[in-house]
Design goal:
single chain, 509 residues, alpha+beta, FAD/NAD(P)-binding domain, Polyamine Oxidase, Chain A, domain 2, protoporphyrinogen ix oxidase, domain 3, five-stranded parallel sheet, 18 helices, 36% helix, globular, binds flavin-adenine dinucleotide
Length: 509
């Protein structure tokens, strides 16, 4: 993508407001979309001038694709939770809702007790809500099943219901793993909760905030009743929905990465200046706002406001000289790294018994592979005759083995794991290896309060907001919502400051 010319410095206070968005991932793109005005009023004279800085040659951040076996395939997010409204709404605003497609297959498996086993029906995120399907799935051994069944028993539950200290007030947050282990036993935590919930963040439920990631679990744990019964109502509500309800998951027919292209087209049409290959090196304060210095040889440029939509460790670097406490809170958010290998295999390489969208491998299995998705079963528009498309993932928080393997060794080890776990055979006809270093922010217990403090610190700096996967959810819809909310905060703060300036000017005349 060609780099737009970035306008030279303007006199602070004069003319249109000018806002910089730093980071051209989905969060920054959504922020720029919000800043550049409502879609039905693109020529709004009050709309600020917006410049989007992205250090990579292309927009999209984690929204990325590769051509594998002649198909354009997402190598970052391949779909999104359509029940969250933010991305579905954005697709409508962009006029691409007709490009949305639902999954073909449903259900998944987990590698447990030496083979793949279908996940039990009635899971709430990754927590069983019914004993019968849990028992029939064979995911737990006999001791694990008895331990989980204790949750349903009246005797002894009050003692298990409270979190330590037993007679003190319940804590505002707790690790998901601690709640599940205490109430349902270690096997449920390791074989279901960790692969399913931990997998969303490529992290471990043992150090993952229940309040931020699964608030319903915290609520059910506090209620004092059975955890499994307490989590039943959302599962039952989903089952009662009419078949015409929108699919839980969706993707774009051209791939999630095409979202960045659709957004870039609309932003350009609205006059947003897009500067790719343009890393923001530093931020300086001036009398009325910020001066942004890039590594692209442009002169530093004045902006009235900033949306910082980069990973938390990079946001920390950018604000360090302006708010040391905010910088250290940002840098306390840890990240995990993953690698994904997208492969095309001959149809015959796949065992006939494989069903659903793929399978998960618990950390306790000790394998390199963490998950495998049958991409062309999940998204039927990717299906081609005589070949199959799949994606294997490696890496989670605390497991960096994949980073010391070169591409060949990574692929060989993953293939060996796939052979052992699923019976897959043969070599890929084509493949793409994608490395995602420091990609998934880890939401530790206390995350919500940490984010509140970061946002309060950001509000102490003039017209600045941070947004992205590190704060209010890692999924693409959450990032869209966060980017737009950050844009509104910055605009609101700028407009009220301008209102005060005008009122003072009129009063002094
Ligand atoms: C392998 C993988 C699979 C995933 N699967 C799903 C899924 O199926 N569904 C789902 O909803 N979510 C999924 N996610 C999560 C989701 O994709 C991300 O959380 C989300 O895309 C993050 O968007 P972002 O804009 O906040 O950050 P990023 O995409 O990281 O964007 C930040 C941008 O800032 C740029 N940048 C950094 N520093 C600077 C600087 N100094 N100057 C200028 N630019 C800078 C970066 O180059 C980058 O483009 C997945 C993520 C990965 C990695």
């Amino acid at each position: 993508m060609a780099r737009d010319h970035i306008p030279g410095s303007i006199e602070p206070g004069g003319g249109r407001l000018r806002v910089a968005v730093i980071g051209g991932g989905i969060t920054g793109l959504a922020a720029a979309f919000e800043l550049s005005g409502p879609p039905d009023d693109p020529g709004d004279p009050d709309a600020p001038e917006v410049v989007l800085f992205e250090e990579a040659p292309a927009l999209g951040g984690k929204l990325r694709s590769a051509v594998v076996g002649g198909r354009v395939v997402d190598t970052g997010p391949d779909g999104f939770l359509a029940r969250r409204p933010e991305l579905s709404r954005l697709c409508r605003e962009l006029g691409v809702e007709r490009r949305l497609v639902g999954p073909g297959a449903t259900g998944a498996a987990v590698y447990s007790r030496g083979r793949l086993r279908s996940l039990p029906a009635g899971l709430a995120l990754g927590i069983p809500t019914r004993l019968g399907p849990l028992a029939r799935s064979g995911v737990l051994g006999p001791a694990g099943l008895i331990r989980a069944a204790l949750d349903m028993a009246e005797i002894g539950r009050p003692a298990l219901a409270h979190v330590a200290p037993p007679d003190g007030p319940p804590p505002e947050d707790e690790a998901i793993g601690a709640i599940v282990t205490r109430r349902l036993g270690r096997q449920v935590a390791e074989r279901l909760a960790d692969p399913l919930i931990g997998g969303i963040h490529a992290g471990s439920v043992d150090d993952m905030s229940a309040a931020a990631v699964f608030p319903a679990l915290l609520g059910a744990a506090r209620s004092g009743g059975s955890l499994m019964r307490g989590l039943r109502s959302p599962v039952a509500a989903a089952r009662r929905e009419p078949p015409s309800s929108p699919a839980v998951f969706a993707t774009l027919r051209d791939g999630m990465a095409s979202l960045a292209e659709h957004l870039a087209g609309v932003l350009t049409a609205r006059g947003v200046k897009i500067a790719t290959d343009c890393r923001v090196e530093s931020l300086e304060r001036d009398r009325s706002g910020w001066v942004v210095a890039t590594g692209a040889g442009e002169n530093p440029v004045h902006f009235d406001g900033l949306v910082i939509a980069v990973p938390a460790w990079e946001a920390s670097r950018l604000v360090r000289s302006h708010h040391a406490a905010m910088a250290s809170m940002l840098s306390s958010i840890e990240y995990s790294s993953v690698a994904v290998v997208t492969m095309v295999l001959d149809d015959d390489a796949m065992p006939r018994s494989l069903r659903g969208t793929g399978f998960l491998v618990p950390a306790s299995a000790g394998r390199l592979v963490t998950a495998c998705t049958w991409l062309d079963a999940k998204w039927p528009h990717l299906r081609r005759s005589r070949t199959r498309l799949l994606r294997a993932s490696a890496g989670r928080y605390g497991d960096l083995r994949h980073t010391s393997l070169d591409d060949r060794a990574l692929v060989d080890t993953l293939l060996e794991d796939l052979r052992t776990t699923s019976g897959l055979s043969g070599r890929p006809l084509d493949l793409a290896v994608t490395r995602w270093p420091d990609a998934f922010p880890q939401y530790r217990p206390g995350h919500i309060s940490l984010v509140e403090q970061i946002e309060a610190a950001a509000a102490e700096l003039p017209h600045l907001a941070v947004a992205g996967a590190a704060y209010h959810g890692v999924g693409v819809p959450a990032c869209v919502g966060d980017g737009r909310a950050a844009a509104r905060r910055v605009l609101g703060s700028l407009r009220s400051a301008r209102g005060v300036d005008q009122a003072l000017g009129e009063a002094s005349r």
